[in-house]
Design a protein that fits this description.
Blueprint (H helix, E strand, L loop, with lengths): L1 H16 L6 E5 L11 E6 L2 E6 L7 H10 L8 E6 L7 E5 L6 E5 L2 E5 L14 H10 L4 E5 L5 H8 L4 E6 L2 H13 L7 E5 L6 H5 L6 E4 L4 E2 L3 E2 H9 L2 H4 L4 E7 L6 H11 L4 E5 L16 E7 L5
Parallel strand pairs: 3-4, 8-9, 8-11, 9-10, 11-14
Antiparallel strand pairs: 1-2, 2-3, 4-5, 6-7, 12-13, 14-16, 15-16
Length: about 300
């Protein structure tokens, strides 16, 4: 537990000395780099400290951790939330403090709406930050297609970085509504973004219509029954890239499935889009260490040539 206490001490110092703190992962046990702590992660979304338990912790472990935290954090400027992902519906419990009526993830000058304690996911994924950084460097002047857009954080980043337009596609209307709210929250021009509520695998004509695109982001759930199962459905998306980017362009291809290596994605490109050139695998975030790099989030970049056919 000492490594967690040390990380929390650094967080306490940040809270003491900084007014606004970017959201970040305080401790990542899921990567199995800390023996005996594989069941826990800790995130900070100011003012909330979120402890997520993926398995039932050892007897008294959580009580001891909370006791340590009470010595370092005041309930007046922090909120401690514990989410038990190993239980049905992943219930959350507030240990101390009171959640603000509206919660945000902070990323530099950008804010993103959260639904803290209401759903399994908060609405903003910290581990994909290297992908957002890559997009910042490549979005200027581009027409971007954001597939499986969820709450559209990629879109907010792209437009802030100078993208000409971003088309966000997701089958969940509530997620896209939160995405719209994220754009409004960051005062982004309405004519820079479009939101398409469609099942991507069944609506290629609607996805293609606002194009052509210069940059495509593919960030699907790894396994969502009735929507997308990476092992069988990823190929269907990759084979569409040439028609989405007939003049060529970049694709950021994401996969958060520990059981599938980056070799899986590379094989899909060999079979479905052989003209695409592999450029790089974006380096995973240092806050998310893993004993096996192939079990980490995969972020691959491909370059498509102009379609001359």
């Amino acid at each position: 537990m000492q490594v967690i206490v040390d990380r929390l001490a650094l967080l306490a110092e940040k809270i003491r000395t900084q007014t606004e703190i970017d959201s970040y992962r305080v401790f990542h046990g899921r990567g199995r780099t800390f023996s005996g702590l594989e069941f826990v992660t800790i995130d900070f979304f100011q003012p909330a400290i979120l402890i997520t338990l993926f398995l039932e912790p050892p007897l008294h472990w959580l009580d001891e951790l909370i006791a340590q935290m009470r010595l370092r954090f005041a309930s007046t400027n922090t909120v401690l939330v514990v989410q038990r992902r190993y239980l049905a519906n992943a219930p959350s419990e507030i240990i101390w403090g009171e959640l603000p009526e509206v919660m945000y993830a902070r990323r530099g000058n950008s804010l993103f709406n959260l639904h803290m304690g209401q759903q399994q996911n908060t609405g903003f994924f910290l581990d994909i930050e290297p992908g957002r950084q890559w997009l910042e460097q490549n979005a200027d002047g581009k027409r971007v297609l954001n597939l499986f857009a969820y709450t559209c954080a990629f879109s907010v980043v792209a437009i802030a970085a100078g993208a000409e337009k971003v088309v966000n596609v997701d089958m969940s209307s509530p997620a896209l509504n939160l995405g719209r709210a994220n754009h409004q929250l960051n005062n982004l021009a309405k004519n820079k973004s479009e939101f398409v509520a469609e099942n991507i695998l069944k609506s290629w004509s609607r996805v293609k219509k606002p194009g052509p695109y210069d940059l495509v982001i593919i960030d699907p759930p790894s396994y969502q029954k009735g929507s997308f199962i990476a092992e069988k459905d990823y190929a269907k998306v990759i084979r569409r890239l040439p028609e989405l980017m007939p003049a060529g362009g970049l694709a950021l291809v994401c996969l958060n499935a520990p059981e599938l290596s980056d070799g899986f994605l590379k094989q899909q490109f060999i079979e479905q889009c052989p003209q695409a050139e592999f450029i790089e695998r974006v380096k995973p975030h240092v806050d998310f260490p893993d004993v096996d790099p192939e079990q980490q989030l995969k972020l691959l970049v491909y370059q498509l040539p102009a379609n001359l056919s």
